[in-house]
Amino acid sequence: MRPKSNQEPGLNVFRENPASAPPLPSSRLLLRFNARLLIALTIIFSLLLTLYALWDIRRTRQEFSGLLQNQAISLLSLAHKGLSDAAQSLDYLQSQLAERLLDNARLLEQLDRQSRLTPALLTQLAEQNHLFRVQVFDGQGRLVMTNGTGEQHGAGPGPGPRVQLQPILKGEEQELVLGFRQGRFGSGQRFAVARKRSRGGVITVNADAEEMLHFRRTMGAGSFMRTMKEIPDVRYMVLQDSVQILLASEGVHAMNSIPSDPFLLAALADSQPHFRFSEYENERIAEIVQTIEMDPFDRGLLRIGLSTSHLAAAETNALRRVLLQSLLFVFVSVALTHFIISLQNYRTLQQAYRRIEGHTGSILAHLHEAVVALDANARVTVFNVSAEKLFNLRPDQVIGRPCPAHIDVCGWLTQALESGKDLVDQQGTITVEEKQLVIHGDITVLRDGQGRIDTVFAVMRDMTQQQRLADQIKRQEQLTAMGHLASGVAHEIRNPLNAVSMIAQRLGLEFSPKEDAEEYHRLTQTVVSESRRINDIIQQFLTFAKPAPLNRNKCRGDEILHHVAGLIRPAAEAKGIKVTVHAQTVQEIEIDRDKMEQALLNLAQNSVDACSSGDEIQLECRPMGDKVHFIVRDNGPGIQQADLGKIFHLYYTTREKGTGIGLSIVQQIVNQHDGLITVNSSPGQGATFTIELG
Q: Is residue 571, in this structure, part of any structural domain at all?
């Protein structure tokens, strides 16, 4: 029984002292402690994760802002370049127009100095040279002669002649380019120049400038503004000075003025780009601003606004990601969360890179200029759509390969790559599909962060048409001047020549010397025959100086070529020269058939004279869009480079028996048809003359 009694006290002790060994309460305390620790750790890690996510959002915002700023700077540089090119094109056209008007003013002043300038002659010269208004003022600024009565000087807006022409009236200047002026009574824009009269006073010459202003609106800075507005994410582009908006993309009606905005004032005082985020039409946009020198005394601001929708979307996505990561933190580890965030950021940055790359590609695709770029290994990395059209090459023929050596721009790029220096205003010629093109470009060298050359790129423009127009205008002015000179000389020579001829005839008929009668009559007959020959030359002078008006009729170009070929074929075959005609059936064109046949016959006859046995002359006629091209090509000795610029000059010839008037007549006929004639030739390679009619 003792053992039992011994167990009972033990049990009693346990029951009576529960706090001496409390396993259950201790376990509950430990669980409570671990739960608190877990909650605390969860909160701490959640806060850390939230802080990290917030830091990541800020970093993403900064990265996107940096990318957006770089994109804005690239667009700003492109816009600055485009506006500068547009301004240069307009300045070039203005200088050409000013030079043409000054040439007319000099001719009028010369006639006035010789007392030959009359109102009738003034009106005739104005009509022939397409001058809108010519006015002659005396030394007191009074109008003494004009070619019309539609606009009288002194009426309408703007300062009078006494104010505008004072530098010439005071003897300070010989010539002035007055530039654009508003026509009297609101009749449109004019472009004017002035020249001093040797007899005292001023001669002013005006031309209608509406065509040039239309060019500025449709092909100049306005066109560039419209093109830039079509680029995705570009909200506006504005050029403004301290007073007003000068140029703006479509849809821009009002902008805050420079004096009212401290940011714009600071940007105007600095030459570096300024970047900010602001509001535009209830939208948050990124704006980049840079000063532009508009003239020596004024400067303005070029402002470009970009959409921040991608940045806002990225920020919204990042915020949603933070909330989701906080809720799912219990189920994922910090490392996995960090990996997901990093991966998402990488993808976002990759999308941003692709979007920026797409923007850059869109910009390059919309550029009218050809862009070619080489990497540090002299391999082509960029070849845009305009370059494909200019050089007639596909991207797969050049991308990743050395630049083709036959393209001048490759020499420029290689030179810049070797020297490490930019090349400005480079000009050269290339041959594409048997056509010589004149290209003009600038080469820029880009370096990486270590200063090493990373990329060399060229921006080029096709200046062929401008060069051809300039050459044709110059030739036309030369022909006009030579025609006036020839007309004047012809009139002065014809009267005394007739008297000499009549006297010689009378001497031959009425007198007979006693000695050497035969020689006497031979000499008088020689005088008569030579007088007739000179008279024929004078008649050529007069015909060239005042050509007959065109008699336009509808006819087919292929029929004209076959007719010309039939005329020259006997003489060509007699010399062993082959004559072929490649004439496509083209639509009827309205031309003076006789004169155009005369022009083509002169070109073909020149080829016959230049070629020898075994050579070939090709006559071609083919449609080119809404135009028709007549081509006379031979494989004869060609034309020396030194002679190419002179062959259209009156009485210039390299042949012993040539008259030097044939090509001048061809040029005159083409000009009467408002066409264009070009020549492509080199020694030993033959010559190709192309007449382009619209």
A: yes
Asked if residue 284 is part of any domain, the answer here is: yes
Q: How many C-beta atoms lie closer than 10 Å to residue 404's C-beta?
A: 13
Query: What φ, ψ does residue 577 adopt, rounded to 5°?
Result: -105, 135
Residues 492, 437 share a domain? no
Tens of pLDDT, residues 307-345: 888 777 777 777 777 677 666 665 655 555 556 566 667
Residue 26 lies in a domain: no
Domain boundary among 545, 564, 597: 545
d(Cα 319, Cα 333) in Å, to the nearest integer? 19
- State the pTM of this model: 0.37
Q: Are residues 114 and 192 in the same domain?
A: yes
- Alpha carbon 681 to chain centroid, angstroms: 26
Strands 616-624 and 578-583: parallel
614/678 same-domain check: yes
80-111 pLDDT, tens digit per residue, is 776 666 666 667 777 888 888 889 989 888 88
Are the beta carbons of 671 and 655 closer than 8 angstroms?
Answer: no
Distance CA 468, CA 481 (A): 20
Instruction: Count up the domains in the chain and report the number.
Output: 4
Angle between helix 464-510 and helix 662-672 axes, rounded to 10 deg: 120
**DSSP 3-state of 249:** coil
- Would you give the DSSP letter of residue 547? P
Sheet of 423-432, strands arranged across: 380-383, 370-375, 453-462, 435-447, 423-432
